[in-house]
Amino acid sequence: MLRYLRPVFSRVLLPLGRLLARLGVTPSMVTLVGALGVAVSSLVFYPRGELFTGSVVVTAFVLLDMLDGAVARASDSTTRWGAFLDSTLDRLSDAAILSGLMLWFFGGGDSPALGYVSLFCLVSGFGISYIKARAEGLGANCDVGIAERAERLVILLVAAGLGGLDVPYVLSAGLWLLAALSGITVVQRLIETRNRLTQPRRPAGDTGVV
User: Fold this and answer.
1) Can you tell me which residues form the catalytic site (predicted)?
2) Binding residue per annotation — 143?
3) pTM score, whole prediction
4) Tens digits of per-residue pLDDT, 54-110?
5) How many of the other CB atoms lie within 10 Å of CB of 133?
6) Which of 28, 32, 103, 160 could lock onto 47 through a cystine, CB 3.0 to 4.6 A?
7) Where are the domains of the chain?
8) 90, 94, 110, 206: which one is catalytic?
């Protein structure tokens, strides 16, 4: 869904990426700082119930993390290692956000039900990413799903931020929505992968043209 906006973001961020590249900043440096910032701020602010402040700081580091691709393109240093590092740290960053919220819900937030919903979102988020990675490792494209990482982050951070401003019901509604969309996305990717991996293979040289 939001992936269709990626070319727009890429063009907007490219000038800043060029500036950082000229200053000697590498894509991996941007990736590490962004991921570390998300993890630390999530685990510092959220467990203390500072949901609005935490969401603002986390969002700032998420936006910073988006610059790694722009720096890589500007410095012509796109590598498979960089892609692997970015993907891995994205998973850990997402886990830190949801873990911080879980600590709040099971602690001072006194809402075990939302804690379990957050846990489901964390597990299903890993499942969404794993299914795609495993499918592509087996040669099947699995770039489908109603809620990819960008959509999930938007829902989560907006809900947490507004919840921190005491907007009624928005945090619980956002988490339940995220859980539902994550579950649907897992099923979508499982079905897509099954369809692709069970398709009959054409004999070598068979173009399918009669």
Assistant:
1) 90
2) no
3) 0.87
4) 999 999 999 888 888 788 877 777 788 888 888 899 999 999 999 999 999 999 999
5) 12
6) 103
7) 2-197
8) 90
Pick the CATH number of 2-197 from 1.20.120.1760, 2.60.40.2230, 3.30.160.40, 1.10.10.10: 1.20.120.1760
Known catalytic membership, residue 90: yes
In the block, tokens 């379990």 appear at 116
What distances in angstroms separate CA 66 from CA 19, 62, 88, 91, 134, one per listed residue? 15, 7, 14, 14, 24
Residue 68 annotated as part of some ligand binding site: yes
CB 128 within 8 A of CB 182: yes
Residues 11, 73: contact at Cβ < 8 Å? Answer: no
Q: What is the DSSP secondary-structure string of 125-188?
A: HHHHHHHHHHHHHTT------SS-HHHHHHHHHHHHHHHHTT-TTHHHHHHHHHHHHHHHHHHH
User: Structure tokens of 78?
Assistant: 């796109």
Q: Taking a C-beta distance cutoff of 8 angstroms, is the pair 151, 6 a contact?
A: no
Q: Does 76 appear as a known binding residue?
A: no
d(CA 145, CA 122) in angstroms, rounded, equals: 17
Q: Which residue has the tokens 């790694």?
A: 68
Closest CA to 100 of 59, 57, 48: 48
Nearest Cα to Cα of residue 177 among 120, 128, 94: 120
Q: Which positions of the chain have pLDDT values less than 70?
A: 1-10, 201-210
Residues near 89 by beta carbon (within 8 Å), at least 6 away in sequence: 31, 32, 34, 35, 65
